[in-house]
Amino acid sequence: MSNSTVIDCVCDCKRFVDAIFCFVFLLIPLSVAITSAIFYYQLIYKPKQDLAKREQMNVDDETLSLQGKEEGRQSEESGNRKRRGLELEETVLKQRQEYDEMEENRSKRISEGEGKMKDLVEEKKKQIEELEKEVKRREKTIAKYESTIHQMRRRTLDLRDQLRFHQNPSEYLDYADRPSLIRSIATEAAGSSAAKRPVNGMAVVEKSLFVIHSLSSEIEVYDLTTFALTDQFPVPMVTDPMDMTSCAGTSCIFVLGRVDPSGKSSRILRMEAHGSLILDWFSGGNSGRLSTHEARTVVCLLIERMVVCEFSDDGRLLHTVRLSPEACLNNPLHAIKVNDFHVVLSHGHSQEDHHRVCLLSVDGGGVLRDCSELTKRRLLPDDRFDNPICVVGGRRGSVLVADRDNRRIVLLNSSLKYERILIEAERGPFTDHDSIPTDTFPERICFDETGHQLVVAVNGFSPDRGRQDGRILVFDLRL
What is the pLDDT of residue 365? Predict the structure, then answer.
């Protein structure tokens, strides 16, 4: 064997031994790792897994236990629900039976009640019919009594007037047979257009005459001694004055006029004699006439409402007289209160109306007596009033009437019987200068403070312009 071969063998052995040593050195860490892994598995991982399995088993056991309990509870609740459902069904059946019984009883009671109600209604109807018959019977009785009382009142007034006349026959002849004309005043002020307007109202306070015109807001004041224009002042609020009067006890004037352009409302103004406004109040209507009674009473006739209202001088409504429809008091014109129990009313405007002056009772508005024909005039036996537009109380209960369309002033006694014609228009060739001009119509009358002078407001008339050209005539009534 050669040396090279030996060397090769030695080298191969050495490489083999090196390889073994390398393998051993590599195997030791691997074995350590495997041993460590085995120890980790046996000592740590496997116990954890066993513990987790045991815990999972415990959880599963608890879950099964809870599921069993829940199933038991649910089954118990289901049983309870079924039991309660059965009980509820039984209760509902019982209530339904009770409700059916109640409905049956209620229907029975209703039918019984309806029968009783029908009987009661029939009984009440019979009672109402009997009461209505009784009311009608009593109304007829009351109407008879009222008619009897009315006739007795008229008879009493007639007897009283007859007694007064027999005691003093001259009491109705206390005025001059032919009153003399003292002055004729043309109602015109410097720079005023009222001269062409008709007079709508007059009032006398002491020795002053107050005059107001249609569609004028100014009052003219004249001295009844000198008959001169002494003052002129405006009327507040009023756009269309309708009437004016005075109250001697308070030295005030009262104006009735419309205050709005539509003419649907009117007010009564109480003013001082020098023109200052004291107070005003709503009249209650849109058109009317004024008068006064005694010291502090204002009488307002509301034409469209057919009512006579009595106010105090501070605007309080004291009394209302409703004009009876049965009395045929169509188109009332003027009203005055002659005493505490009676009102004198004039009415009649159209040809179809009765033109009368009537005495009314303040409590019922019925006609106690009236005057329409001037029966004492022998030459004109059928002479009648024609638009008696204004009335005023005179001496000893007499009444003076401005008979407009007949153009005259008529004197009636306290019984509303015709006495004579005081003043009338000029007629024919026998012209009397102490009379009313033929081209004018008397529309307002009043006395002065002494009662010796009669102030008459006359207005002209034109087919084109209507009422116009107001004038004042002053007559002396003394014998």
Answer: 62
Whether 444 and 428 have beta carbons less than 8 Å apart is answered as no
Map 332-363 to HEC letters.
EEEEEECCCCEEEEEECCCCCCCCEEEEEECC
pLDDT at 421 over 60: yes
Q: In which element (H, E) is residue 233 found?
A: strand 229-234
192's CB contacts (< 8 A; 6+ apart) are: 218, 232
Tell me which residue of 249, 240, 294, 293 sits closest to 269, measured CA to CA: 240
Residue type, 379: L
To which H or E segment does residue 121 belong? helix 46-167
Q: How far does Cα 55 stand from its chain's mean position?
A: 96
CA dihedral 98, 102, 104, 108 (to 10 degrees): 160
pLDDT band at 429 (very low <50, low <70, confident <90, very high): very low
Residue-level pLDDT at 52:
81
pLDDT in tens, 52-75: 888 888 888 888 888 888 888 888
The position carrying tokens 């007499």 is: 398
**Which of 376, 310, 20, 25 has its CA nearest to residue 173?**
376
345, 302 contact by CB (below 8 A): no
What is the pLDDT, as a whole number, of residue 428? 39
Average model confidence (pLDDT) for the chain?
A: 83
Residue 217's Cβ-count burial label (10 Å; 0-12, 13-18, 19+) is: middle
Q: How many CA atoms lie less than 13 Å away from 140 in the CB half-sphere?
A: 5
User: Count of CB atoms within 10 A of residue 357's CB?
Assistant: 25
Using alpha carbons, select from 307, 298, 364 the residue that is nearest to residue 332.
307
